[in-house]
Q: What sequence folds into this?
């Protein structure tokens, strides 16, 4: 816990000069817990046994945040009056608790014979105003009844009897100062050489509210751009220059303090810099550039058969007609599925199969051909379902990308896709690292966009709800820089290029096999398990 | 140790009150209806998460008439950010009989925006009324004038706005009739088709002439999508229009479905 600002302690001791001493003590404490963000204040007025017989204790207290009162509390008790407050605060603010402590004479019988009830200020501890009305007690330190302005006015306005002396305790701070930062995690902690890894998140504690410093060891070729920072989280883009070798990197965070002030050590042994956590730089050594293009091959036998009516038998006639007539009819059918979640015209597994293959057969991609320009191809999102590019002089310059599904309704020439066709990248897409076998890898993992997913969910739910499977490719390099790119899903077709030339093609399975044999998550089948 | 011994109660007490309120919500008001289906708690559990998959169960509970899902749907409405999903939930709440006007007002509000849009149809037609490939020049000009990328505006006009109109009709609530009739005059023929389906679902016989008129005013390629709603009306003129504009296979299927008990375009 970091005690932020002032822990003020006001003690006043009332001494009865010629008699046995009686004591009234007041204390105020303020603290701040950075982990919960709570400022807590506590104040009390406590009387000894003798005083407690004649008086009640009272405390009135305010909690201020940067000089503004944010909480107030009062209490009367015997022998102790306690007041407590909590407040959700902010690191870097200044908190102060100010309290007034008083005692109140009890209303009791002072008559020697018979009743004579009155306020009995037995030790003359309180200032008794000239006119005290029934039901309102005079209070020590109070220039005017009911006032909240106790602090500071107490000694001068109370007009206390001379036989008592008052000692005001000094305000002091305890346990003030900043704590040593700690790192509990870095994600992702595998950084590709020659690339910028965006949104590297460092989690931990005590990073401060001022922009902290991230340190790397070795530091050569590694830099960062800070995106955001809090006391417990730093997000930064980390750039590793081309040529930086494969290596482990020690990462530390240096706190630069809170609220514009520099780091103020909270005690001996406190450091502004955390202990280190590990990250890793991956540099494909002398590797070629490998590109894997996943595309729907519309010339495959099952698709050609479908387009020739080979799957029409037994299909609901209105499903057949709606999907294959005007754009208005087709769009309306897809809207029923994707947005209203109504499986219109889909009655059984035959219809589900037809609708599933229809979506693929009417949205093929062009064959990328024997040679490609990876950068140009990557920018044509309709040319592929997935794109994975890794290695070469700029190891992942073109990265791992999801393509856009052409509109199977061919509505207004297939020129709009928006939310319907934009592919979805999984949380693993673009990940790089070193596998347990020592190979450096990059994963691409995507699936059709939200519209396609929702439509398929609705249609498949007629028998049992399924979600669209992911498709993936993993490009790997061994220590000699030799590539491996055969780790691909069985659908769609994957064309593998080394330095822009086609070296292998993995032909897609049938569409129905893709939908029926895949589970929602296929990542377990990757060579480097995520 | 906390400096404040009683802090825990101060924190816990309000949470206990929330718990009491939540338990009361689960117990639920009667809504004056009785569910026709057997309770399947599993469906209600699947309804709760804020995921795309859970939205499938929004339609599922509506289809099953599960009024016991209303408290969960109300909570889901509050937390759902996607405007289309929010409209869908609102529509299902209205359909299940939720008397809170919040849901009707929300859905009617988004549909009013769709109906009042002056965006032209995204498709262009030739002299014979056949659709031409590509976005219509008028639509592109409209999108640019409104500083919206044409593809984004077209996606909205093609899928989102018509879907919202369909959701209004799917409530089967007669309060929707005036708005749906207005939608028959939309320059977006997918919205016109959606409105016609909604009026058919509600069974508003008085709207038949309006639907027929909208059909005749539409481009050739859009007429079938609008006219198939007329299958659900026992009106000779309506059935003539169906025979004239709706593809034979679709008309036959829709008539068979109706004969077997399907009450409207959204029924299944």
A:
């Amino acid at each position: 816990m970091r005690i932020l600002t002032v822990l003020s302690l006001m003690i006043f001791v009332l001494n009865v000069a010629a008699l046995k001493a009686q004591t009234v003590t007041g204390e105020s404490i303020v603290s701040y817990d950075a982990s919960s963000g709570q400022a807590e204040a506590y104040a009390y007025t406590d009387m000894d046994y003798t005083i407690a017989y004649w008086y009640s204790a009272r405390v009135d207290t305010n909690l201020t945040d940067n000089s503004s009162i944010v909480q107030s509390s009062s209490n009367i008790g015997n022998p102790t009056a306690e007041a407590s407050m909590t407040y959700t605060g902010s690191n870097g603010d200044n908190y102060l608790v100010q309290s007034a402590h008083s005692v109140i004479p009890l209303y009791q019988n002072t008559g020697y014979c018979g009743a004579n009830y009155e306020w009995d200020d037995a030790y003359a501890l309180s200032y008794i105003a000239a006119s005290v009305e029934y039901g309102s007690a005079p209070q020590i330190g109070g220039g005017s009844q009911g006032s909240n302005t106790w602090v500071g006015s107490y000694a001068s306005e109370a007009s206390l009897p001379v036989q008592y002396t008052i000692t005001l305790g000094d305000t002091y701070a305890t346990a003030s100062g900043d704590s040593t930062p700690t790192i509990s995690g870095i994600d992702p902690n595998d950084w590709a050489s020659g690339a910028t890894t965006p949104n590297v998140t460092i989690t931990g504690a005590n990073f401060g509210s001022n922009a902290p410093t991230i340190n790397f060891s070795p530091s050569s070729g590694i830099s960062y751009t800070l995106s955001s920072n809090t006391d417990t989280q730093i997000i930064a883009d980390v750039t590793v220059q081309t040529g930086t070798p494969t290596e482990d990197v020690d990462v530390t965070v240096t706190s630069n303090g809170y609220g514009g002030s520099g780091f103020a050590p909270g005690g001996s042994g406190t450091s502004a810099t955390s202990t280190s956590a590990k990250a890793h730089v991956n540099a494909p050594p002398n590797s070629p550039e490998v590109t894997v293009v996943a595309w729907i091959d519309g010339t495959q036998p099952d698709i050609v058969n479908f387009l020739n009516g080979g799957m029409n038998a037994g299909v609901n006639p209105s499903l057949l007609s709606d999907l294959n007539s005007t754009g208005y009819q087709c769009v309306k059918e897809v809207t029923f599925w994707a947005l209203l979640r109504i499986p219109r015209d889909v009655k059984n597994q035959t219809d589900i199969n037809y609708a599933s293959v229809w979506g693929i057969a009417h949205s093929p991609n062009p064959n990328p051909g024997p040679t490609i320009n990876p950068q140009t191809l990557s920018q044509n999102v309709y040319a592929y379902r997935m794109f994975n590019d890794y290695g070469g002089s700029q190891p992942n310059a073109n990265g791992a990308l999801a393509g856009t599904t052409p509109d199977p309704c061919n509505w207004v020439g297939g020129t709009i896709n928006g939310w319907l066709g934009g592919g979805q990248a999984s949380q693993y897409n673009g990940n790089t690292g070193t596998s347990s076998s020592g190979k450096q890898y990059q994963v691409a993992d995507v699936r059709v966009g939200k519209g396609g997913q929702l439509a398929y969910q609705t249609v498949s739910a007629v028998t049992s709800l399924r979600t669209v499977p992911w498709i993936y490719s993993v490009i790997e390099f061994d220590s000699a820089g030799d590539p491996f790119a055969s780790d691909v899903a069985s659908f769609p077709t994957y064309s593998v290029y080394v330095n822009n030339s086609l070296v292998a093609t993995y032909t897609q399975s049938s569409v129905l096999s893709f939908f029926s044999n895949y589970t929602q998550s296929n990542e377990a089948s990757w060579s480097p398990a995520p | 140790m906390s400096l404040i011994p009683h802090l825990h109660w101060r924190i816990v007490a309000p949470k206990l009150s929330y718990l009491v309120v939540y338990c009361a919500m689960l117990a639920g008001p009667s809504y004056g209806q009785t569910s026709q289906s057997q309770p399947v708690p599993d469906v209600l559990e699947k309804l709760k998460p804020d995921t795309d998959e859970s939205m499938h169960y929004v339609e599922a509970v509506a289809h099953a008439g599960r009024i016991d899902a209303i408290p969960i749907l109300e909570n889901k409405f509050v937390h759902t950010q996607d405007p289309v999903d929010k409209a869908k939930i609102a529509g299902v709440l209205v359909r299940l009989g939720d008397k809170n006007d919040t849901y009707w007002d929300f859905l009617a509000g988004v549909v009013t925006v769709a109906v009042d849009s002056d965006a032209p149809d995204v498709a262009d037609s030739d002299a014979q009324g056949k659709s031409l490939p590509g976005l219509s020049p008028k639509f592109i000009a409209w999108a640019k004038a409104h500083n919206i990328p044409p593809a984004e505006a077209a996606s909205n006009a093609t899928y989102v706005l018509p879907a919202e109109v369909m959701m209004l009709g799917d409530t089967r609530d007669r309060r929707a009739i005036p708005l749906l009739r207005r939608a028959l005059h939309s320059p977006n023929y997918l919205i016109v088709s959606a409105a016609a389906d909604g009026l058919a679902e509600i069974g508003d016989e008085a709207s038949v002439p309006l639907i027929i008129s909208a059909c005749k005013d539409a481009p050739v390629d859009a007429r079938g999508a609008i006219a198939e709603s007329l299958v659900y009306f026992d009106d000779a003129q309506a059935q003539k229009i169906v025979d004239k504009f709706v593809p034979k296979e679709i008309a036959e299927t829709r008539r068979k479905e109706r004969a077997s008990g399907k009450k409207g375009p959204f029924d299944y």
